[in-house]
Amino acid sequence: MAIDIRQTALTRARYDRLARVYDLMEALIEGFNFRRWRERLWSRVRGEHILEVGVGTGKNMPFYPPEAQVTAVDLSKKMLAQARKQAQQLGLEVDLRTMDVQHLDFPDDSLDAAVATFVFCSVPDPVLGLKELARVVRPGGQIILLEHVRARHPILGRIMDWLNPLMVRVMGANINRRTVENVQKAGLSLRKVEDLTSSGIVKLIVSEA
Ligand SMILES: C[S@@+](CC[C@H](N)C(=O)[O-])C[C@H]1O[C@@H](n2cnc3c(N)ncnc32)[C@H](O)[C@@H]1O
C-alpha cells in the first residue's frame, strides 16, 4: 500500500497550523474527560521500550511509566516543538522524532508497546499506520489506542458522516472512522474494547501485535 503523499502533507500542514492553539482549543474537554481517560490507558501499558505515535503537544507525558524508555513521534514539527516544551517542563527525557506512522523508521519487533490517543482519526491511511505498529511491536506486545469513532446509532452515524468534511477542515480529524474494524483489518489481535461514553463514540482499544 502506498502512502497518499498529498493527504499526508495536508494533515501535516493542518497540525502545524493548529499547534500553538491546540491546548487552548482542547482545554475544557481535556479537563472534563480526556485526562482521566489518558490515565486509564497508561495504567494498562506494560514494557520497557514504548512508542507513542502522534504525540501532539505531549498531553500523555504526565502519565508515562517512570521506568520506561519512551520514544514519541509526530508528523508535525510544530506539534513536536510544543511536546518538547512539555517534556522540559516535566523534566522528562523523551526521545522526540518527526515521523509518519504510515512509514516508521524502527526495525521489526523492536518495541514492547505502542500507544496512540486521538491519532487514527487523522492519519490519512489508518490501516497502513496500524500495520506499521504491528510490524515494529514485538509479537505479543501491546498496541493500545484511545480513539473517537463513528457512532453505532444509525442516525447519529449518518450525521457524523455528513459533518465529517467540515470537521476535517477545521480540526484535521475525521469523526466517522471505524477504528475497531481498522485494527482488525490491520491484522492485530483485539483483546478488549471499552466504551468510555454511553454513545460508544470514545473507545479504549487494547490489542496485541
Ligand atoms: C488530534 S491530535 C492528538 C494529539 C495527542 N495524541 C493527544 O492526545 O492530544 C493528532 C496528532 O496526530 C498527529 N498525526 C496525524 N497523522 C499522523 C501520522 N501519519 N503520523 C504521525 N503523527 C500523525 C498530528 O500531527 C497530531 O499531532
Can you describe what's shown?
With 209 residues, the protein is of the alpha/beta class. 41% of the residues lie in helices and 23% in strands. The chain is built from 6 helices and 7 strands, in the order ααββαββαβααββ. It has helices spanning 5-18, 22-42, 77-90, 126-136, 154-171, 179-185; strands at residues 49-53, 69-74, 95-98, 111-117, 137-148, 189-195, 202-208. Strands 3-2-1-4-5-7-6 form a 7-stranded mixed β-sheet, with helices on both faces. Helix 4 (126-136) crosses helix 6. The radius of gyration is 16 Å and the shape is globular. 40% of the residues are buried. The mean pLDDT is 95. The chain binds S-adenosylmethionine. S-adenosylmethionine binds at residues 11, 15, 53-56, 59, 73-76, 79, 100-102, 117-119, 122-123, 129, 173.
Write the layout of secondary structure elements.
Layout lengths: L4 H14 L3 H21 L6 E5 L15 E6 L2 H14 L4 E4 L12 E7 L8 H11 E12 L5 H18 L7 H7 L3 E7 L6 E7 L1
Parallel strand pairs: 1-2, 1-4, 2-3, 4-5
Antiparallel strand pairs: 5-7, 6-7
Bound molecules: S-adenosylmethionine.
The site of S-adenosylmethionine has 22 residues, from helix 1 and strand 2.
